[in-house]
Amino acid sequence: HAKATGKGRVQLYDVSMRADATRRRQIEEGITQALDEGDIATHYQPQVDMRTGRIVGLEALARWRHPALGWIPPSEFIPIAEASGRIVEIGERILEQACRDTLALPVELPVAVNLSVAQLAREDLAETVADVLLRFGLPASRLKLEVTESVVMKDTRRAIATLKKLKALGVSISLDDFGTGYSALSYLRSFQWDELKIDRSFVRSLDSDRHSLSIVTSILELAARLDIGVTVEGVETEEQVALLTGAGCRVAQGFLFGAPVPASDLGALLARGGRAEGETRSTASVAA
Ligand code: C2E
Ligand code: MG
Ligand code: MG
Ligand code: MG
């Protein structure tokens, strides 16, 4: 179609479109092999109590190193896998890895796993989760499932019904990227969330935009009144820690406390976390 109008810009656009389509197809077609060969790994980011510096939980994040394309961010391959439905298998694999890896730790930390729209749309999601927990032996109380508002928006009534089934298993349910959606407040009415994760866009703008701190403070108050826990995402600087703890935030996730790492690095991360507190590994488990 670029041929008709000709000339640089249009043609470049066309070429990059075709490159995008090729990359997308490579990613789509690579998923089968990735699942077969175990190329989709799970990394873990610590969630930290900012007052003590202790690790109080982990978030499992999908990581994929494609044989030809290299590292592909989840923000790129998750939507593609979502469109083809393969996300259901990927999600189950991540859940299994999260169970296995957390159980191998010397401390009893909870682990958070992200759910996609396609997973939440499945009638058998709660059965699948129950089955994985049973097979691996992870107590339901140590699993948190994170959904974004867009995941709930798809078919709200059904999504909420499924979340209730999951909650009945004893699993905690978190509302991820809180504050970035369209009508977050109505979702607070329709379901008893266990946790809100304040989106990192609020943290990023803390020092430049005075409204951000007011918003974070208000979310904390709202959550406290509704008996919902709060984790703040994307903490990168000590200044942000000072502002956030001043506002009453306790639990945070962010590069300042640690980027996502492979399971094999968790032992060292936990040992270091314990040492910073002058604690041993065994007493670090008290935090969980
Ligand atoms: P999310 O669930 O909100 O995960 C947090 C994202 O923020 C992660 O990006 C993490 O690496 C990044 N992050 C953490 N701390 C900082 C920080 O201090 N600064 C900045 N700039 N970023 C930080 P990641 O791993 O690239 O994942 C992006 C999104 O992809 C996730 O957002 C989640 O929505 C989705 N995702 C990742 N893994 C999975 C999965 O297994 N299943 C599903 N359905 N979605 C996943
Ligand atoms: Mg998340
Ligand atoms: Mg998030
Ligand atoms: Mg996100």
Automatic annotation (TrEMBL):
Every EAL domain range: 24-274
Record key words, sorted: Membrane, Transmembrane, Transmembrane helix
Keyword hit for Transmembrane: yes
Keyword DNA-binding: no
Domain of life: Bacteria
Name of the protein this chain belongs to: Diguanylate cyclase (GGDEF) domain-containing protein
Species whose genome carries this gene: Stappia indica
Lineage: Bacteria, Pseudomonadati, Pseudomonadota, Alphaproteobacteria, Hyphomicrobiales
